[in-house]
Amino acid sequence: MMHPQDAENLIQADDTWDEDEGADVASSGSSLTSITSSVLRGKVEDGRVYAVYGKEEYGMPMDDVELDRIDMCHAKYYALLEKRRFLAPITENPQKILDLGCGTGIWSIDVADMYPSADVLGVDIAPTQPEWVPPNCQFELDDIEQEWAWRENSFDFIFARDLILAIRDWPRLIDQAYRHLKPGGYLEFQCVTGILGCDDHTLRENSPMRRFSDAMYESTCLYGTPIDDPTRWKRWFEERGFEDVTEVIHKMPLSPWPRDQRLKLIGAFEMENLLFGLSGMVTRLFSKTLKWTPEQVQVFLVELRKEIKNRNVHMYWP
Predict the structure, then answer these.
(1) Which of 20, 142, 172, 315 would suit a FRET pair with 200, their CA atoms being 20 to 30 Å apart?
(2) Contact between 253 and 270 (Cβ < 8 Å)
(3) Domains of the chain: which residue ranges?
(4) Is-contact 34 128, C-beta < 8 A?
(5) Could you say which DSSP state residue 40 is in?
């Protein structure tokens, strides 16, 4: 594991930008068409639509705005991982791949195209996937925190990404994945960990983003989905019996402040993710746990968005 303060891991900031030029980026839009005609009716709260399927409440919405955000994040991860969809060294001809919490299904579809030999199954509590998919890709509506009905020892690769505000019992989920993988199969989890980082002290201690990070930690703990759970994944994998457990930590800039062009692009993606996705991320969460009104949330987000656009503040997520 790399320590965030390692000198050789410092991201060089771009000091050539003009603060007056602003930091807005255009909305990326979705590469997939929403299947609103076949989506089950969700629950509307404060103008956002949330899934009602599953035993536990999921903190993120399932409306078109959220689906566009998920697809944009798919491109962001592709850049972050240097044009890779995953890191696990799976075989060239896998037979069965499972995508947990597949969202719009975009990862499942891409991987099905990459591996014609594999049957790729995407599962989610919200039926927000497209109807036209590769012949070796299919989707199921299911709650992955309940007992799995698939055959054990059957998957070559199980994948999950950004199950934020979704999983209450990671060890149980990891245990189910272990039992359903073939011997020699791989499990890979990816997630932004909401522990704010800054290596050069450009982020003030009492800044809006610091207060947001603290509020996220407190509220997600109360919600039962601690935002720092990914820091415990490696230990949980090893305790279950997985071998060759590898943890890779990247720094994801929160805006286009880095000098490096790839990291600058990733920062632009993440800034858009935050500017357009913050309301969906925290409205239900802060209301349920911190008892904030929707009006309080929106006032706070105005201040927060201003700081996110400031490229003189060199923030990142692990």
Answers:
(1) 20
(2) yes
(3) 28-317
(4) yes
(5) P
Residues in the chain: 318
DSSP string across 98-136: EEET-TTSHHHHHHHHH-TTSEEEEEESS----S---TT
Which pairs from 276-280 meet CB under 8 Å and 24+ separation? 276/27, 276/65, 276/69, 277/65, 277/66, 277/69, 278/304, 278/305, 279/48, 280/48, 280/60, 280/61, 280/65, 280/66, 280/69
CATH topology for the 28-317 domain: Rossmann fold (3.40.50)
Could you give the CA distance from residue 161 to residue 189 in angstroms, rounded to a whole number? 6
**What whole-number distance in Å separates Cα of residue 307 and Cα of residue 207?**
8
CA proximity to 209, closest of 59, 73, 313: 313
68 sits in the region (left: phi over 0; alpha: psi -120 to 50; else beta) called alpha
Cα three-residue angle 120-126-129, rounded to 5 degrees: 50
Per DSSP, the residues of 246-264 read ------EESSS-BSSHHHH
CA angle (270 as vertex; 269, 272 as ends), nearest 5: 70
**146: Cβ contacts below 8 Å, ≥ 6 apart:** 54, 55
Given a contact cutoff of 8 angstroms between Cβ atoms, the answer to whether 158 and 181 are in contact is yes
What is the identity of the amino acid at 132? W
Instruction: Say if CB 53 and CB 45 are below 8 A apart.
Output: no
- What SS3 class is residue 49? strand
Is 285 in a helix, a strand, or coil? Answer: helix
Axis-axis angle for helices 261-289, 64-80 (nearest 10): 140
Convert 2-38 into a string of H (helix), E (strand) and C (coil).
CCCCCHHHCCCECCCCCHHHCCCCCCCCCCCCCCHHH
d(CA 148, CA 126): 17
